[in-house]
Design a protein that fits this description.
Elements lengths: L24 E6 L2 E6 L6 E5 L2 E4 L5 E4 L3 E4 L2 E3 L6
Antiparallel strand pairs: 1-2, 2-5, 3-4, 3-6, 6-7
């Protein structure tokens, strides 16, 4: 879980950013891929891959691969190991 809620990953600046929802997005692994789901956040979730917005254009779930992830206006860094 990514967001400001106490059960989310609070090791990042997301916990202090008022533009990030309490539970803004979910990340999960399935089928050897990393996926992101927007949880109806107020500011939206955007996955930018190869210059195109893959999430945020009415989509709620997308595969993350070589992409930049934005929670509202906040860019987050995803490091996928393995």
């Amino acid at each position: 879980m990514l967001g400001r809620y106490s059960r989310c990953d609070r090791t990042t600046a997301l916990a202090e950013d008022s533009g990030v929802s309490r539970v803004h997005a979910l990340l999960f692994s399935a089928d050897d891929a990393l996926w992101v789901v927007d949880t109806a956040s107020t500011a939206g979730t955007w996955v930018i891959a190869q210059g195109q917005a893959a999430l945020g254009e009415g989509r709620r779930i997308v595969r993350c691969r070589d992409a930049r992830l934005f929670l509202g206006a906040v860019e987050t860094l995803l490091v996928v190991d393995g």
